[in-house]
Amino acid sequence: MKLRSLYILSIVGLLLVIIVQIKGMAYAYDNTKREAERALNECFRLAFIETVDNEINKLPFPDYTVPFYSYIPKDSVQSYEDRIFLEYQQAASFLEDVYHVTIPLDEMARLVEKKLKWKNIDRTVNIRPASDRSKRSAYVRFKSVLSDTAWLNEKKEEKIEAAIFSPFMPIVKDILFLFMPTLILIAFLVYSWAKQMDSILRQQGDIEKQRSVFYVLAEKMRLPISEVHKQIPENKWEDIEASGKKLLDMTEHTLAGAKENERKRQARKQHSFKVFSVIGSVACCLLLVVWFVYLYRAALRETAYQVNDCFEASFYDEVLQHRLSLYYLQVQKEETDNDSIKIVESPFAVVESPFAKEQKEFLKGEQSKYLVGKMYVVHIYNSIDQNYRLRSALIMQSDINESGLSIPLSMQYLDSAFSSRLAEKGLKARSGIRQYRYPSDSTVLQAGYSSAGRSDISSQFIPLRKDSTLCVQGIVENPYRYVIHSVWYLFLPLLLMFLVMLDCIFGQMKVLRMQRRLEQFQKDFTYAMIHDMKSPLSSILMGAHILSSGKLSDKPDKEEKYKLTMEEECEHLLTLSNRVLVLTQLDEGELQLHKEEVPLRPLLDDLIAKISLKAGKKVEFNTIFHRCEAVYADAFCLREVLGNLLDNAIKYSREEVKIDIICESEKGFCKIKVCDNGLGIPLKDQALVFNRFERSAAAARSGKGGATGFGLGLNYVQQVMLAHEGRVEVESEEGSFSEFTLYFPVKTI
To answer: How far is the C-alpha of 494 from the C-alpha of 482, rounded, in Å?
Structure first.
């Protein structure tokens, strides 16, 4: 992956994380608000009932006096909980109108706050008159959470509601200590990556400068080398030697500048980016674990509260709807057996207040319209902090136990009610009930899933006797799926964020590899320049010096060999200079191609003859022409391209070389294939060989007569083919063969 692609991918990933985080936070806020509304409504209803009930119990009547009856229209009742809530709303009106008792709203608000704390919502509650919610501003509607309304006095049309603001603040406060290290880690990763990229860009700039210097030097050498090439047949050794010294000084000066730049680069302070990446990856993984554990435990605490709440509600249902009903039936049966009153409405109704008696007379003819309920005055210690539902259930249980009637708790009924309550909340894990002795913790009876494991959730125990020696408890099998599902909207953006962070870390590692590669390239840069420029110049200078001394005047064979060597080195430098010139023109968009129909047979014959002479190893050429005898191309560039491919085939080969040159026509293209039986190119290198200054790993294994040069050849081939509106392709197998295919478009009229 290219660095630019890595950048783009990372930026897109970060933007995606930001979008998902915003969406996740919005969803989390909405979900938190909905949960807060549900919790506030539940707590407000309970607090309203408890507060009103507390005021009823303060009335100056004996225990079990009926101060008034409740009568709820049958068509307005939806559930038992709704009925109770409506009854106490009516009771609040009776307290004010009949007994002139004002419901303490501040006490009710404190009670709601205490109940909300049990649900991990620590906010101030405001009990206020209900108003038209549609008239509130969008900001107030966004920020506030409101409960259902309740009649404080129906005759006076006085309604109240509970309100809290910013229910998400406790969550923000809880996760702040985790958010800060996460933010620091992200800043750390961004800083380290920025420093790495700065280092990379500096290196790339230095290399680009060196490349420019190299190109300029090659251009400056082009004309003097041409003159030297012409002077060799004329035996002008002194002129050649002078020109060689001048060119060598230019090369030395350029190389000295390159070495100085390398020294300065090495002297610059280097950051240990590898350490940054390791620290970042470890910290990222640790933070991910901490975040996951925190969110899971927070959701688990909320689930444990829900389990306890469901168990208390189920216990209340069991007492009220099962044991109390059986109690009434048994009392009724006893009264009937004693020839007493045949129908006993309540065993607790002892006295009626004057107002209750008036209500009873009124209700005699209205039994079909209303559901009639009794309110009792019970002077017991009434702690406002206790759960009204549980307290009521314990009071009813105590009365049943003290009656002397044998009405034991139904484990099956309690288990069924418990399971139903859990299912209503979406908690579908296995559950059960156990009855046990305290403090020995020995199980007496059990129903459903009751073998509590370490990861299971157990409710608080509820005593079945006043001395708490016999208790009952609800158990839920580890509900990990429900827990995770309840906070998935927090896990998803969190996971995406950490995936992007890990991507950044892996991106840093990729950049590190690139940096090491650039460092190696810079180390090889000077050597490449020495080999491609200084070495040929040194050979030319040495040959001119020896020939000018006259030491070989009597050795014509050696003299001719020196001349041939000097000519080859001049041709090498001219080839390099020409390639640099073409690449420079291509970069600047100034290359002008002189296309024509170039016959392939004479061109290839000439190239093969010249290459065979200087190959230094046994080379077998095989040319095949199949409906392609000529190509429409620039003759000079075509010769350079083919010469480069043939040179590479010989360089990256063993001692015996077989080269096939196949010319054929195919779908609007003239193809020229150069196939060899050489060392091949590794698969990982095949995508890189056409890059500027890239050389195959085969260069290190080429041995004698192996690869030399600066890595411009194949890049030159690619650039020239693109300029011809064609392309070059490579197919290779390491240790077996290489095949380069040139595609030249056919001339169109």
So the answer is: 18
SS (H, E, C) 67-84: CCEEEEEHHHCCCHHHHH
Instruction: Assess contact for 93 and 409: CB atoms under 8 A.
Output: no
DSSP label at residue 732 = E
3-state DSSP assignment of residue 243: helix
pLDDT digits (tens, 9 = 90+) for 41-80: 988 998 998 899 889 988 988 888 899 998 888 776 667 7
The CATH H-level (homologous superfamily) assignment of domain 592-745 is Histidine kinase-like ATPase, C-terminal domain (3.30.565.10)
Q: Are 396 and 319 in contact (CB under 8 A)?
A: yes
Each domain of the chain, given as residue ranges in start order, spans 1-167+348-391, 592-745
User: How many Å is the Cα radius of gyration of the chain?
Assistant: 47
Q: Which two three-digit tokens encode residue 183?
A: 């933010």
- Phi/psi for 707 (5° steps) reads -65, 130
Tokens at 68, concatenated = 């008034």
Report in angstroms the alpha-carbon separations of 715 from 669, 692, 718.
Answer: 21, 5, 5
Q: Evaluate whether 180 touches 283 at the Cβ level (below 8 Å).
A: no
pLDDT (tens digit per residue) in 344-395: 344 444 688 999 888 888 888 777 788 888 888 876 544 444 566 787 788 8
CA 299 – CA 479 distance, rounded (Å): 11
Residue 737 bridge partners (DSSP): 733
At residue 203, does pLDDT exceed 60?
yes
Distance CA 186, CA 191 (A): 8
Contact (CB, 8 A) for 609 and 602: no
Tokens (6 digits) for 259: 């070495």
Which of 692, 708, 698, 702 minimizes the C-alpha distance to 734?
A: 698
From 649, 641, 640, 654, select the one nearest 622 (Cα to Cα). 649
Tell me how many degrees the CA angle 317-322-323 measures, rounded to the nearest 5: 110
| Residue-level pLDDT at 705 | 38
Residue-wise pLDDT tens digits, 421-439 = 999 888 888 899 999 898 8
Q: Is the pTM higher than 0.85?
A: no
634-687 residue pLDDT tens: 998 899 899 889 988 988 888 889 999 999 998 889 999 999 998 888 887 887
Strands 618-626 and 158-165: unpaired
Give backbone dihedrals phi and psi of 129, rounded to 5 degrees, phi first: -60, 140
Query: Per the omega criterion (within 30 degrees of 0), is the bond before 602 cis?
Result: no
Which two three-digit tokens encode residue 425? Answer: 């909340």
CA 736 to chain centre: 44
